[in-house]
Amino acid sequence: METKIFSKDEIDDAVNLLAKGELVAFPTETVYGLGAIATKEKSVKAVYAAKGRPSDNPLIVTVSDINMVKKYAKEIPERAKKLVKHFWPGPLTILLFVKPGALPDAVTGGLDTVAFRCPDDQLTHDLIAKLGYPIVGPSANTSTKPSPTTAQHVYHDLKGKIAGIIDGGATRVGLESTIIDLSVKTPIVLRPGEITPEELSDVLGEKVLINTGKVSDKEVPKAPGMKYRHYAPSAPVVVVDDKNDFSRIKFSNDVGVMATKEILAKIPLPDENKFNLGENLIEADHNLFGGLRYFDDKKDIKQIFVEGFDEGEASLAYMNRLNKAAGGHHFNK
Predict the structure, then answer these.
(1) What pTM did the predictor assign?
(2) Where would one find coiled-coil regions in this protein (predicted)?
(3) Cβ-contact 50, 23 below 8 angstroms
(4) Is the bond preceding residue 148 a cis peptide, omega within 30 degrees?
């Protein structure tokens, strides 16, 4: 299969492919998503096959507005309306009860809930509006690998497996959306993202919990990113929580380092063994997946040391993705 890359002026071509049941990757402000019409079970199953994704890992339904949610959600509670008004379009995914039979089990994992997201990206809004249907939108990468933040990342992983990619340039946020579960009595963040639990709590006027539990092998996770290994390059990743510990690491030419500019300046390695995460946490959020992909393409790198951050709720999303990439492996722990 030839994988075509579309410019923003070629949206109609991408719409036509999706309408025929084909898969097309699309940009969002967080990461690139892999699109298929959410109501077409055959197309949705093809998404799992293209990614090599476990079949019990539910998919997020990407919509153009709240009116599209009304067609598939059993109800839209007042809490959801508050969050939609404040954060949509944006990097927030909302889990609600689904209308029975409204969406294939391949989307919901057979659960009675489904996650909805309205991205802050005009290309994707135009795509869905012209299509007239919501699309599933898991990250457009090979399962377990770092999520794609450019069209080139998608092409690297899925060339020949999908029909097209809409090139919207580099993503702004760089980490996937926050997922909040509103199907429970007390709202709970199932996956941290740019929007923090504190911000959600302020808008809702009630406490918002953070999921810390693990999903067992026999359970179907309520949302993506809760059960399986994610974001991992080929080489093992080690989290360095204390930046002073970088001076204690014995570096060799088969080691890679991802850290802020200040730390990298002190690392005795050639430039090709270093990846600059930026000046601060916000820049590190944006660059994390790019760094993991950078080293994934370097077959001579046998271990990757990555700077950790401890900045409260602001660093939850970064550390969630980094810990998954590292399999919980921390330096000196």
Answers:
(1) 0.93
(2) none
(3) yes
(4) no
Q: Centre a 10 Å sphere on the Cβ of residue 327 and count the other Cβ atoms it contains.
A: 12
* Measured distance CA(12)–CA(147) in Å, rounded: 26
Q: What is the DSSP string of 238-288?
A: EEE-SGGGGGGS---TTEEEEE-HHHHTT--S-GGGEEE--SSHHHHHHHH
User: Which residues sit in the known binding site?
Assistant: 30, 53, 57, 113, 117, 139, 147, 177, 191, 231
Annotated binding site for L-threonine: 30, 117, 177
Give the distance, in angstroms, between the CA of residue 27 and the centroid of all CA atoms in the same chain. Answer: 12
Question: Measured between alpha carbons, how far is 215 from 228 in angstroms, rounded to an integer?
Answer: 9
Q: How does pLDDT run across 107-156, given as a tens digit for each residue?
A: 999 999 999 999 999 999 999 999 999 999 999 999 889 999 999 999 99
What value does the mean pLDDT of the chain take? 94
Specify binding-site residues for ATP: 53, 57, 113, 139, 147, 191, 231
